Amino acid sequence: MAVQSVEASPAETTHPAASAAPVSLGPAVALSCRECGERFALGPIFACELCFGPLEVAYELPTGDPEALRQQIEAGPNNIWRYAPLLPVPADVADQPNLNPGFTKLVKADNLARELGVTGGLFIKDDSGNPTHSFKDRVVAIAVEAARAFGFTTLSCSSTGNLAGAVGAAAARSGFRSCVFIPHDLEQGKVVMAAVYGGELVGIEGNYDDVNRFCSELIGDPLGEGWGFVNVNLRPYYGEGSKTLAYEICEQLGWRLPDQIVIPIASGSQLTKIDKGLQELIKLGLVEDKPYKIFGAQAEGCSPVSTAFKAGHDVVRPQKPNTIAKSLAIGNPADGPYVLDIARRTGGAVEDVNDEQVVDAIKLLAQTEGIFAETAGGVTVGVTKKLIESGALDPSLSTVVLNTGDGLKTLDAVAPTTGPTATIRPSLDAFRDAGLAR
Amino acid sequence: MSVKVRIPTILRTYTGGESEVSAEGATLSEVIADLEKNHAGISARVLDDTGKLRRFVNVYVNDDDVRFEQGLETATPDGAGVSIIPAVAGG
User: Fold this and answer.
1) Fewer CB within 10 Å of terminal CB in chain A, N or C?
2) Closest approach of chain B CAs to the CA of A216, in angstroms?
3) Nearby residues of B59 by Cβ (< 8 Å), 6 or more positions away
4) Pairwise CA distance, residues A17 & A150, whole Å
5) SS3 label, residue B67
6) What is the pLDDT of residue A20?
7) For all residues of chain A together, what is the average pLDDT?
């Protein structure tokens, strides 16, 4: 099949840390620095040795008849591997032991739309339907294939909770050892979910940024040699998994771009990769080339990106997180500057809501659509409401809001204000006396 | 003031493969200047053309991110540990 290069292609540099043998990861041809454009051979590296900028996967993507590619995708499995021709994975990826995440529901949220006054169509991309109930299964699935290609035998990560569970599960299924690191004070649901798969789970006395720093030091130490850290040395591949959210949303909309998308921001990687996925679909001719707006959502207690956006800055000043939305509690977001670029380029915005608004939004989504979101979903729904009220988000346009995880993981957030209506004796009189007869 | 500096993998070509080196200086700025004296070229990897920390470099003095302190003017007391870490991890 003919190919097209989607990145500029200056001379490639082989990084000394990269695997000596060339690897085959489908259409991926190199790693490219997002800051300075320097290219490196595919390998387990993540930062540019010239400028420290983030490396991302450069591709030779299929060209030719978009209709043929569309048919090939539609004939594929009901998971992210239907998009294998656009991902850094081997051609036989669907035959490898993997959790096969993706193709989660895009729910037309008419009740919530009425509540919020949206007339252009409101959709929830509900990623709680993934194998470990968060979008992290998508990114981990890609990282597993990279880890296999580079010969790693241990999978690891720094995690705010969801990722630890996704790595533990993927490692168990795919035959890797796992050792994952989390802040010591996470929600019980996430801790148990991360531990149940049998790998090692280590609580670090500190916040996520402390955990992340620890992992970055571990990877440069002989203690971490031979480890595939999905969101450190495998991060360029891992991040690409979030493109599948863009692909699915457009395919589920009948191969159309939404007008507006509201995406949660932790490190910002997911938002930047959804934008990358949308751009790829346009270049491939799979969707019409038309404007879309990307909105980022943060919790007020950890809002470095929205603070920078509102102040007109292009530098993100780190914060010390203090919010119930722990899966978004990254005070020093690696991709923050790129989120600002994308929100401004597309005419979107970055906004935040406080913890009370997060809880209200979780309940609003549950009570209108029957979807129980984790706190990150409360953040996106809450920010959507706020953006509509401020006029930044146009209710007459089609809008997709991401729910990236399951509310069962963050019960602590809603438990204090959510419980039984009444507890009664098993008698009709008691039922009547409690005022429950309608 | 003598400090220990942890060097990330991508800068170890400048330190002969060493993951930790000693440097002198009362502030981070002076420490980086001293590193440059002994490991020529390393300063331009950590600082941009205007002499500021590159935006994708995190530097810690002991456990403190210098962006929460005084940046390049953060004090580096005798015996402190300085860590230079790529910022593009996590998430």
Assistant:
1) C
2) 7
3) B28, B46, B53, B65, B66, B82, B83, B84, B85
4) 11
5) helix
6) 52
7) 93
Look at B8 and A269 and tell me if their CB atoms are within 8 Å. no
Which residue of chain B comes nearest to A48, CA vs CA? B10
Q: Exposed, middle or buried, A225 (CB in 10 Å: 0-12/13-18/19+)?
A: exposed
ipTM: 0.92
Same domain, A260 and A126: yes
**Strand A293-299 with A349-353, pairing:** parallel
Question: What would the pLDDT profile of B59-82 be if each residue is shown by its tens digit?
Answer: 999 989 998 899 999 999 999 999
Pairing mode, strands B20-24 and B2-6: antiparallel
**pLDDT (average), residues A254-280:** 98
Whether B77 contacts chain A with CB within 8 A: no
User: What pLDDT is recorded for position B63?
Assistant: 86
Q: Is the CB of B86 less than 8 angstroms away from the CB of A213?
A: no
Helix axes A336-346, A304-311, angle to 10 degrees: 50
Q: What global pTM score does this model have?
A: 0.93
What range defines the domain where residue A191 resides?
Answer: 136-238
3-state secondary structure of A144: helix
B-interface mutation test, from A52, A160, A313, most B Cβ less than 10 A away: A52
A235: which chain B residues are within 8 Å (Cβ-Cβ)? 88-89, 91
Give the nearest chain A residue to B66 (CA atoms): A318
Helix (H, G, I), strand (E, B) or coil at B45: helix
Q: Mean pLDDT throughout A210-228? A: 91
Residues A79 and A115 in one domain: no
Count of structural domains within chain A: 3
Q: Is A7 a residue whose pLDDT tops 80?
A: no
Residues A228 and A274 in one domain: no
8 Å CB contact of A220 and B87 = no
Residue B14 lies in a domain: yes
